[in-house]
Specification:
The structure is a homodimer of 265-residue chains. Chain A is of the alpha+beta class and 265 residues long. Chain A has two domains: 65 residues, Orthogonal Bundle (Arc Repressor Mutant, subunit A), CATH 1.10.10.10; 171 residues, Beta-Lactamase (2-Layer Sandwich). The first copy, chain A, has nine helices and nine strands. In chain A, a hairpin with a 2-residue loop joins β4 and β5. The radius of gyration of chain A is 21 Å and the shape is globular. Chain A binds a DNA duplex (30 and 30 nucleotides) through α3.
DNA sequence: ACCGGAGCTTTCATTGGATGAAAGCTCCGG
DNA sequence: CCGGAGCTTTCATCCAATGAAAGCTCCGGT
């Protein structure tokens, strides 16, 4: 009856949630059990409890999906909806001026997560999805987030193989390191045909008191792009957001550190 | 050592997540334990595990917040982001035409949850929040969702005391029942100063093969509103969305029920 | 109608992860 | 230096969780 020791109940529940992905948002019980590496009866019981609470929902087809209740709780994430609510007006301004795609992303571990996107009807199609992940080394937002990430994060990304998306993608750690230094120097990042051969993006950092917490970018067709002209726009948006964050984002309750800025190496 | 019997580990984890709310998105360990009704050491251990996974994050102030990882998983909810992605273009069209607030909501149990909102800069201020809940009996979207809800849901709502928000709020079950019949008859709902004395909303149902799954509305200043003129607009948006849902929303994989429509009493 | 298989649900004896009292630790203000 | 608040760790105990096995339900093939 060995219950594979070292596995907590909580970790099993989380593994069940983790089984879902953008590519497979609906799973049968058997699929769930297999992906979470749980015996069927165990999966059955945990899943039943999650459904009862509303974390999962069961469709007419018998398959399970992420439930609205979990979406509600997730919407309380400061780095998710919280950030989005703050940024949306500025993103809309940027869209009004340029009518190009506007993206907002944060770093999570060694990848980036897209928090919001305004996709112009006539702009270049972008293949990103809100809530989706992407590598840090190619996109504009990714370069910004990586450039201002803790040294240890940068080292880990540079040490791993860097995936190539186009013939122009920078996959050489040495060259990438130079690009990151450049990003820090000028305060914005340009990603020219690094992900697809038709798109170019310009990104700027968004700073909170504790360092760079997000990045905002414009994605435009590479042949009608003028990065130097776009950069000030994106940077301005980033600065407005940084100011907004400084005040309302993560209100240190009671004790406000007046001059601690021990981050962003 | 009595471990209050009948309480599963999973339920404790969910209770911890449930402790967060729009009004208190950041909690100390003690607050978390108290709200989840757990002994401190128990809360400590479960919370530590949730942080390790990324479901919670601990701020510089020592308090816990909902983590980005949970937001990511939540974004996979078909009735959350899934619905939003589908509806956003149509909502934007509605906004372009009217420059008024556009809202999208679904029913969860006996309340409604706002999925998305486009708030016009110059439109009436609305006090709703994406991810927030509200009663079903007052707003436009609420009336639509209630009108097309299963009879048993309607009975439960009508049986409970109906909160009054303004002097005009309909709180009499008999009158409300008549209004719901009217909504079903004409196919849209008008909520005139039911929540605040300055706003009026017009809402229409969004149907999937299995019945009404969401509602869309315009919220306008009550004194410059012409419900009869707005209704066709909102209804058209609802119908476009219903059509979109019929095809791409909940793709029954493999076996598509060709003519089952056994819902929506 | 019958059979076989896939997928889900329930039962039941067993046990290891979970538990909470208590003690230890850390920080801060007086 | 002391006291208190809040968090973390230890440790002996035990019940929620477990998985093998059997039961159930729905199909599709024959």
């Amino acid at each position: 009856m060995r219950a594979q020791p070292g596995r907590s109940v909580t970790s099993k529940v989380l593994a069940l949630l983790d089984a879902f992905s953008p590519a497979s948002p609906a799973l049968s019980l058997s699929e769930l059990a297999r992906r979470a590496e749980l015996p069927l009866p165990t999966a059955y019981r945990r899943v039943a409890e999650l459904v009862r609470w509303g974390a999962l929902e069961r469709g007419d087809d018998g398959r399970y999906r992420i439930g609205l209740r979990l979406w509600e709780v997730g919407s309380l994430a400061p780095r998710g909806l919280g950030l989005r609510e703050l940024a949306l007006p500025i993103m809309e301004d940027l869209y009004e001026v340029t009518h190009e795609n506007v993206q907002l992303a944060v770093r999570q571990d060694l990848e980036l997560v897209f928090i919001e996107r305004i996709a112009g009807r006539h702009a270049v199609p972008v293949l990103t999805r809100v809530g989706g992940r992407f590598a840090l080394h190619a996109t504009g937002v990714g370069l910004v987030l990586l450039a201002y990430a803790p040294a240890e994060v940068q080292e880990q990304v540079l040490a791993a193989p860097l995936e190539r998306y186009t013939e122009l993608t920078v996959t050489d750690p040495v060259r990438l390191r130079r690009r990151l230094a450049e990003v820090r120097r000028v305060g914005y990042a340009v990603s020219d045909r690094q992900v697809t051969m038709d798109a170019l993006s310009v990104a700027a950092p968004i700073r909170a008191p504790e360092g760079v917490v997000a990045a905002i970018s414009l994605v435009v067709a590479h042949d009608r792009a003028d990065p130097v002209a776009l950069a000030p726009l994106v940077q301005a948006a980033g600065r407005v957001l940084s100011r907004a964050l400084g005040t309302s984002y993560r209100q240190a309750p009671g004790r406000v550190p007046l001059r601690s800025r021990h981050e962003t190496q």
